[in-house]
Amino acid sequence: MRCFACDTGIVLGSGERIGFRDECDRCGADLHVCRNCAHFDPGAYNQCREPQAERVADRERANRCEWFRPAAGEATDRESPERDARAALEQLFRRGDG
């Protein structure tokens, strides 16, 4: 799976799961989020292909959805202008650190 926020690859061992409080080692973003889920689909009703899943208001924050499954391969919605703006802002502040 790939972190939706920074596109870093997250390696999961066989049978390993993403916990509700797990974070990306690179950027600190929550990992158990809709945008990292195999069921996430911006074009689907409730933006989720799992019909039994409850509605989640913020798809980029940790949630306790029991239907969560790590998305395979590429992060979803990689071309998001919001994600690109956040990445640019984070890079700007990183330059000031040293």
Explain the overall architecture.
This protein has one domain (1-98). It has 98 residues and is mainly alpha-helical. The longest helix is centred in the last third of the chain and has 15 residues, at 81-95. The N and C termini lie far apart (31 Å). It has one helix at residues 81-95. The protein is 15% helix and 0% strand. The chain has one helix and no strands.
What features would you highlight for this structure?
98 residues, mainly alpha, 15% helix, 0% strand, globular
Summarize the structure.
The longest helix has 15 residues, at 81-95.
Q: Number of helical runs?
A: 1
Q: Radius of gyration from the CA trace?
A: 14 Å
Structural class: mainly alpha
Strand residues, percent: under 5%
Query: How far is the first residue's CA from the last residue's CA?
Result: 31 Å
Number of strands: 0
pLDDT average, as an integer? 86
Coarse morphology? globular
Oligomer kind = single chain
What profile does the largest beta sheet have? none
Instruction: State the low-pLDDT regions, or none.
Output: none
Helix content: 10-25%
